[in-house]
Amino acid sequence: MTDHFQRLGLKAHVDLDVAALEARHRELALVHHPDRQTPGDAKARLRAAEETASLNEALKTLKDPVRRGVYLLKLHGVDLEKDEAGGSGKLPQGFLAEILDLREALEDARAAKDLEKVQTLARQIHERQAGTLESARAALRRLPAADAIAAATPLLAQLKYFTRFLEEVDAIEEEALG
Amino acid sequence: MAYSEKVVEHYENPRNVGTLDKNDPNVGTGLVGAPACGDVMRLQLKINDSGVIEDAKFKTFGCGSAIASSSLVTEWVKGKTVDEAGTITNQQVAKELALPPVKIHCSVLAEDAIKAAIADFKAKRAARTGQAAAPSAPSPQLHK
Questions:
Q1: Complex ipTM above 0.90?
Q2: How far apart are CA B40 and CA B71, in angstroms?
Q3: Are B89 and B32 in contact (CB under 8 A)?
Q4: Where are the beta strands (DSSP E) in B69-114?
């Protein structure tokens, strides 16, 4: 099976040039555009539509550094997307307690319509996200070493909780604007 | 994706949302998370000296299925003994709520939360009576 990196003609690596990734995607999306297939060839059109969907999925996954990291781990046998509570992405109780407290604080701020508090919490998470992402990337650069996988897994699992938190912040901000 | 009627019912009227005193020696706290969705669930059980669960509270930050799963198990565990509660499986939860395959992990979270809360309670009780924690109840809480 073609992976996302192969599909876009890139080396599977944590560091990639996002501008080059987007340029490559544009180029291939044009070639595989369903409207550019031989007129009347329904099969070619269908294949092109499938390839376009795969290209878009590859771009979405590789463009975002957290998604890219999670995907690299998956290529190395650790699938956080399928991870259960007790799986490889299991995090210490202290971390989960902290996330629960932060989500509670965010929920309270939402109920009180205290957007300033929401922003403060978001900044706090953004900062931690940046630091954790840096450590995760450092670990992923050492792939395929087994200890690199072991080091990157909990960091990427933490990043998933930060992403989730910031999605919630986005929803609150949209709600406030709406 | 449409939620089942039972999920919607629990989501709109969640049972037993709240907090029990985690420092109470009769309260076991289970804290679990699913990296797949980045959601967290806390389940607390108040267990009397005969080993019967007298009260249960939960707090879940997650999707409708995760909230419904935790709400349902708080109803199920009340009045049960610790051992009975420990036999509740995620399949039972998923079946009752008619969860689709992509939401099965929510029911797994609820099962793990019960097990973690029981393990926490047992560890507390063992510490109180000065016995070693039962090795048959592995839990993240035991590392503390």
A1: no
A2: 14
A3: no
A4: none
From chain A, which residues contact B within 8 Å (Cβ)?
Answer: 80-87, 89-93, 96-97, 99-100, 103-104, 107, 156-157, 160-165
Q: What is the pLDDT of residues A74-125, one digit of tens each?
A: 999 999 987 664 566 788 889 999 999 999 999 999 999 999 999 999 999 9
Q: Domains in chain B: how many in total? A: 1
The pLDDT mean for chain B works out to 89
Tokens of A96: 């989960």
Residue in chain A closest to B109 (alpha carbons) equals: A85
Q: Tell me how far apart the alpha carbons of residues A144 and A136 are, in angstroms, rounded to a whole number.
A: 14
DSSP for residue B62: S
Chain B environment of A164 (Cβ under 8 Å):
37-39
> Are B38 and A164 within 8 A, CB to CB?
yes
The domains found in chain A, sorted by start residue, are 4-63 (1.10.287.110), 80-177 (1.20.1280.20)
B106 is catalytic: yes
Domain interval for residue B55: 5-131
Catalytic entry in B37, B40, B52, B104: B37
B63 is catalytic: no
Which is it for the CA torsion B127, B54, B118, B18, positive or negative? Answer: negative
Q: To the nearest 10°, the Cα dihedral for A67, A69, A73, A76? A: 110
Q: At what angle do helices A93-111 and A146-177 cross, to 10 degrees?
A: 10
